[in-house]
Write a structure and sequence with these properties.
This protein has 5 helices and 5 strands, in the order H-E-E-H-E-E-E-H-H-H. With 197 residues, it is α+β, with helices and mostly antiparallel strands. A 5-stranded mixed sheet has the order 1-2-5-4-3, sandwiched between helices. Helix 3 packs across helix 4, helix 3 crosses helix 5 and helix 4 packs antiparallel against helix 5. The chain is globular. This is GrpB family protein. It holds the Pfam family GrpB.
Length: 197
């Protein structure tokens, strides 16, 4: 599959604010911190036009409160990923209810992900639910703020994304793996920088 990488769009910030408002209302029973992360959160950086959102919860006990609060709407819950990443709950927000494309609302451990669900043009957002006291929360926030603070690192990341945007990928996960070496190397610097601020 070919992933569309678009030039930075100021509307991404507005879209995040709309989604944040909706998610705040849906998760009102849980204490949350909702953050815009990923490339769409960094002004001037190209990205897949899918908003990355991180919902921070107080502890791992709260993770399993979220799936049922988002059920019956435009979200697909990837329960399948919980085994590999027990510290996170992952959702895709679609442009319509999953049933409109005959998608399940929840993809369980042994389920195949429907091929059409890999189509990023059907997606509005990726939602990552993570405890705020975890290293995973810190690395996402630190990397975002580091890219904003260091234009040379942002330019290097931009160049990598442009190169990868020309290639064909099996799915979004394969594309993410191709960025992994760069991200992991810069994340370590970002975390040190963030802690020293």
């Amino acid at each position: 599959m070919h992933l569309t990488i678009e030039k930075y769009n100021p509307d991404w910030k507005k879209r995040f604010e709309e989604l944040k408002k909706e998610l705040k209302e849906l998760t009102v029973l849980v204490d949350t911190d909702i953050q815009h992360i990923g490339s769409t959160s960094v002004e001037g950086l190209s990205a897949k036009p899918v908003i990355d959102i991180m919902i921070g919860v107080n502890s791992e006990k709260d993770l399993d409160k979220i799936p049922h609060l988002l059920a019956g709407r435009q979200y697909v819950y990837y329960e399948k990923y919980n085994e590999d990443m027990p510290y996170r709950r992952f959702f895709v927000k679609l442009k319509a209810k999953p049933s409109e494309w005959s998608f399940p609302e929840q993809i369980n451990k042994n389920d195949e992900i429907p091929e059409k669900l890999h189509d990023h043009s059907l997606r509005l957002a990726h939602i990552h639910v993570i405890p705020t006291d975890s290293e995973h929360w810190l690395r996402h926030i630190a990397f975002r703020d580091y890219l904003k603070a260091y234009p040379d690192v942002k330019a290097e990341y931009q160049k990598l994304k442009e190169e990868l945007g020309k290639k064909e990928w099996e799915d979004g996960n394969e594309y993410n793996e191709a960025k992994n070496d760069f991200i992991q190397s810069e994340e370590q610097k970002a975390i040190r920088w963030y802690k020293e601020k």
